[in-house]
Design brief:
Length: 111
């Protein structure tokens, strides 16, 4: 992004975009997690893609690495969500970034 932004603000941008794109796409409140040592936010939602019939369940994970923000989107048909939720979360948790975790302002190693 061409301006400073926090993980929370980036997550809101991505989630709002998904919510506007989907029919009935209510995004749940994001939960703070770690993905391979990187700060991340995860939320889930169900909606329909315009022109498509089945409802889709999504898990959105936004991740902050040292140099960038990333979005990991995993999905399944909504009627299979309970069955595959843990698998989708494990897949999302496998995300890695070559630049590693962002440096915290409280991290003594930060410049």
């Amino acid at each position: 992004l061409p301006f400073p932004v926090s993980l929370e603000a980036y997550n809101k941008i991505v989630a709002d975009n998904m919510q506007q794109t989907l029919i009935g796409g209510n995004v749940g409140a994001p939960k703070s997690i770690k993905v391979n040592g990187m700060d991340a936010l995860r939320s889930s939602f169900i909606g329909k893609i315009p022109g498509e019939t089945p409802e889709i369940a999504y898990i959105l994970t936004t991740v902050e690495s040292a140099d960038a923000f990333h979005q990991v989107l995993a999905w399944t048909l909504s009627d299979s969500f309970d069955k595959y939720r843990q698998t989708l979360e494990r897949i999302s948790d496998s995300f890695q970034s070559n630049d590693g975790p962002a440096k915290s302002s409280t991290d003594p190693a930060s410049p």
